[in-house]
Amino acid sequence: MPLLHLNVPKLIRRGGGWSRGLAMTTVSIWLVVLIAACGTSSNSTPTTTSGQSSTSTATTAAPTATTGVASTTATSASTPTATQAATPTGGASSTPSGSPSAGTTTYNLYFIRQGKLGVAQRTVSKTQQVGAAAMQDLLKGPSPDEQSAGLSTDIPSATQYLGLTIANKVATVNLSGNFSSGGDNASQTARLAQVVFTLTQFSTVDQVSFQLDGKPVTSFGSAGITLDHPVARADYEDVTPAILVESPAIGDTVTSPVRLTGSANTFEAAFTIDILDSNGNLLQEQHATATSGTGTRGTFDVTVPFSVAQQQSGKIVVFEVSAKDGSKTNVVEIPVTLSPPK
After folding, report:
1. Interval 149-184: pLDDT, tens
2. Which of 271, 201, 143 is nearest to 193 (CA)?
């Protein structure tokens, strides 16, 4: 074994104290070193290599994480988002989407009340053909209860539904030739409005084009109404009531607070909502405004609280107060069932 000599400094004691001087002494230290550690064999593993190995392991983990990200990205790319899945690959849909809930679909039907549009609702089993279902129900006309509430239709009873296609938010509806028969200009305009409002309630439709027996219509009925371009709700303002309540509809059961939605074109966009019980007593009155008015139609979405101890018939009455004499004008009455909270 080799002998290792080290020079070690020590303090020198002089005159009763320790001096700052140094003396060197030699200390012999035996140091045992393993012969294998002093060798240069290629199979040996230096102590410093262990630290490098740990670093290498940490470096290897990074690509694993990266691989996971790449895998997630690939999976996302192969699975369409909800928006993509809802978009028809052909750029068109046979029917618009409705408002399904718990296996059912509810949509509006637009009939006529005192020469203006009035709203009813239908709830059917959930269907992808909701536009076709709405059109077929529209052609059947209002129910007896809806007729008792003042709803009628200007669509000839013999009219048949023949088909519907949707592309670029334009619905093309194909009806039998009976649709254009009979009635004056007001009646023919009203029946067109009924179809346009029924189809444009869906988010996939902004405008409507008409076909009769599969042929495009450019001039409609004996009045010669021009239909050489797609039409929208705004084209039928004369048939739209000053206050159009689209929900709730006639015959609905409502609980507090009841939510009213629709559109209005009233003075300064203002109108009033009354809720009456089965005896005609006022349960609640609330003033509301649409998003615009005084010549421009705006929308509204209002909730009105009320209180009843038991389920009973009632009415929601919506009206405008005349700026001239304070009387009720543009009155819309909606018979409903009032129900206490569950």
Report:
1. 999 999 999 999 999 999 999 999 999 999 999 999
2. 201
Residue 50 DSSP SS3: helix
Specify whether the CB–CB gap between 216 and 198 falls below 8 A.
no
Helix (H) or strand (E) holding 15: none
What is the C-alpha separation between 160 and 247, in angstroms, rounded? 27
* CA–CA dist 196, 192 (Å, integer): 6
**What does pTM read for this prediction?**
0.71
**Angle at alpha carbon of residue 187, lines to 184 and 193, rounded to 5°:** 140
Could you tell me which CATH number the domain at 243-339 has? 2.60.40.2550
Tokens 């200390």 identify what position? 27
Which residue bears the tokens 């009979």?
A: 182
Q: Cα(174)–Cα(209) distance, rounded to whole angstroms?
A: 9
**In the block, residue with structure tokens 């209005």:** 264
Tell me the helix, strand and coil percentages in the chain, rounded to 5.
25, 40, 35
289 phi/psi in degrees, rounded to 5: -140, 150
* Numbered ranges of CATH 2.60.40.2550 in the chain: 243-339
